[in-house]
Structure formats: C-alpha cells, structure tokens
Amino acid sequence: MSSDPLFVDKVRDVVAFYLDPPERAVVFCVDEKTQIQALHRQPPLLPLMPGTPARRSHDYQRHGTTSRFAALTWQIGEVVGSLRHRHRTQEFQAFLGRLDTTVPADLAVHNVLDHDATHQAPPVQRWLVKHPRFALHFTPTSASWLNLVERWFAELTTRKLQRSAHQSVKERESDIEAWIAAWNDRPRPYVWVKTADQILAALANYCKRISNSGH
C-alpha cells in the first residue's frame, strides 16, 4: 500500500490520461529497467516438449549489465527506447531529448513516471523549463502498477530476457533492439478500464477487510 499523502490526487491525474487523453498530445509511460544482465548459460535452454516444461540450467556466466530506458506510447503501444550503460540524471535527460526529437513539434508531451531521483533532479527541471510542451505526471510512491510501461517490461522479461543467453553486453543489446523492433512492427496498446473512483473504492474495501480481519 502506498503511503503517499497525495495518493488520491495522483491516481486521479494518471488515470485521467488513460481514460480521456488530451487532444493534440502524446502520452508516454516512462521508466527504466536497470541492471539487465548478459548471461550465458551452459547448457542452453531445453525447449518446451509435450508433457515437459521448458528447462534451463542454474549455471551461468555474467558478461556485464545494461539499462533500458523505455517510453510506451499509450495511444498506440509503440515503444521508444534507449540502451545505456549507466542510469543517471544525464542519461534520463538525454532520453527526454530523444522524445523531443521523436514527437512532432506541434504536439504536447505528457510523461507518466515514478519518483526516481533522476526524474526530479535540478538539471531535468531546467530542461523542462526550456521545453514547456513537456509535462511530468508522477505515480504515487509504491504504486508502479499505475504505470503501463511496467506491463511492457514484464513482457520483455518473460518473453525475451528469461529465455535467451548472451556472451556479451553488445550481443544482449542487439537482441533486445531486434525484439523491440518486432514489437513496434505490430504494437499492442494496453487498455485501461478502471476509473479512479473504482480503483479508490476497491482499495478502501480492501483496507476495511484487512482492518477487520482480527490479525
């Protein structure tokens, strides 16, 4: 459960963009997946067979890590991404610059993201002042379920990262880029159906149930 004092306001703000996005604007769900490891397994993954699940060895070698910045275009499901070897303010600011060059200049850009320190650092604030069409909308603390890019990261993990082996960071990065290119060829937007009032009512009922459970 989130202890954010602005939890209700932030839920209403974010959900409003999902259910009723503004005109002449692009809504991105933004986050970073850090410490993506390039692992080489011996022996390789044993494939799925009738009556037998896919299997893999617990033995592996590490060959370095990388970080993935991703912005899920909420309206159509396409992903704008960037692979970086570090996760700092300057990398996030550079990623905002990439979004600036990607989105047509006559559209506003709304970004749903969490409270990571890199998202609120002074250099980022100065960049936003110089780029007034950009706006950041923060999810409540401990509420990553409100950011739809987390659903996409889950697919990246289960469909690609957990099922592959790489002998270098460069090899892993190339494999991820190819997977994302294939995703963007046939993007699938995630459909948000719950209103803010429904979410808040469900959480209130849950809190009432656990407070009356006797434990």
Notable characteristics:
215 residues, Nucleotidyltransferase, domain 5, 6 helices
Structural features, described:
A 5-stranded mixed sheet has the order 3-2-1-4-5, with helices on both faces. It has one domain: Ribonuclease H-like superfamily/Ribonuclease H (Nucleotidyltransferase, domain 5), CATH 3.30.420.10. The chain is of the alpha/beta class and 215 residues long. The protein is built from 6 helices and 5 strands.
Distance between the termini: 17 Å
- Average pLDDT number: 84
Name the helicity range. Answer: 25-40%
Q: Ranges with pLDDT <50 over ≥5 residues?
A: none
The main sheet comes to: 5 strands, mixed
Approximate shape: globular
If helices are DSSP runs of H or I spanning 4 or more residues, what is the number of helices? Answer: 6
Q: What fold name stands as the CATH topology?
A: Nucleotidyltransferase, domain 5
What is the total tally of β strands?
5
| Cα-based radius of gyration, to the nearest Å | 20 Å
Major sheet: order of its strands? 3-2-1-4-5
Relative strand content: 15-25%
State the name of the first-level CATH class.
Alpha Beta
What class do helices, strands and sheet pairing give? alpha/beta
Write down the domain tally. Answer: 1
- The secondary-structure element order is HEEEHEHEHHH
CATH architecture call: 2-Layer Sandwich
Q: CATH H level: which superfamily?
A: Ribonuclease H-like superfamily/Ribonuclease H
